[in-house]
Design brief:
heterodimer, A: mainly beta, five-stranded mixed beta sheet, four-stranded antiparallel beta sheet, 9 strands, disordered N terminus, B: 113 residues, seven-stranded mixed beta sheet, globular
Chain lengths: 111, 113
């Protein structure tokens, strides 16, 4: 997976638009998935999680979708705000209970 | 609410020096974790403690040791620092081992010259 760094995939959206951040995970046996937000100089901050027996879960302005068939996870952010600008990571967990972090995506919100 | 507190926030060491990174959580969590984050790579697990009195190796344990001092505190020690250990180190905790989110501190930025 990719961490905070110079060559992260970047998604640029207009303030007020919806954002969709995608993640491909590696282990078909993973049972639990988490999205984290990381702002510059800070630690990862929990956003939302989902178990493998669900395909959708909603929070406040965020929705996570899980497609186990193609091992794909997405995070949708409604009405994106400047404060949403950060690096977003997905993470997966299997029965060993170890979190494996995926590629990070940088979200830039244009005013 | 402090959550997970890490000290120090920044540190510069010379090759061969030793250092202990401190982590404390005030959420009464049973499980604690140490990760490193390098540019171009995801967070990688160094060591974890599923509960007080237990510690286990993660993905990248070489060159590190840990101590679970009590339920609140989990320290990471570099006995003989190497430039390859230059990284940002994050401590995390969760209520218990299992399908639960881990909550992270703000990291220690460590440079080894």
């Amino acid at each position: 997976g990719e961490s905070v760094g110079l060559h992260l995939p970047t998604l640029s959206v207009q303030e007020g638009d919806n954002s969709i951040i995608n993640c491909a995970y590696s282990n078909s046996a993973s049972d639990y998935f988490i999205w984290y937000k990381q702002e510059s100089g800070k630690g990862p901050q929990f956003i939302i999680d989902i178990r493998s027996n669900m395909d959708k879960r909603q929070g406040q302005r965020v929705t996570v979708l899980l497609n186990k068939t193609v091992k794909h996870l997405s995070l949708q952010i409604a009405a994106t705000q400047p404060g949403d600008s950060a690096v977003y990571f997905c993470a997966e967990m299997d029965s060993s209970y170890k979190l494996i972090f995926g590629s990070g995506t940088r979200l830039l919100v244009r005013p | 609410n402090a959550g997970v507190t890490q000290t120090p926030k920044f540190q510069v060491l010379k090759t061969g020096q030793s250092m202990t990174l401190q982590c404390a959580q005030d959420m009464n969590h049973n499980s604690m974790y140490w990760y490193r984050q390098d540019p171009g790579m995801g967070l990688r697990l160094i060591y974890y403690s599923a509960s007080e009195g237990t510690t286990d190796k993660g993905e990248v344990p070489n060159g590190y040791n840990v101590s679970r001092l009590n339920k609140r505190e989990f320290s990471l020690r570099l006995e003989s620092a190497a430039p390859s250990q230059t990284s940002v180190y994050f401590c995390a905790s969760s209520p218990r081992e299992g399908y639960q989110p881990q909550h992270f501190g703000d990291g220690t930025r460590l440079s080894i010259l």
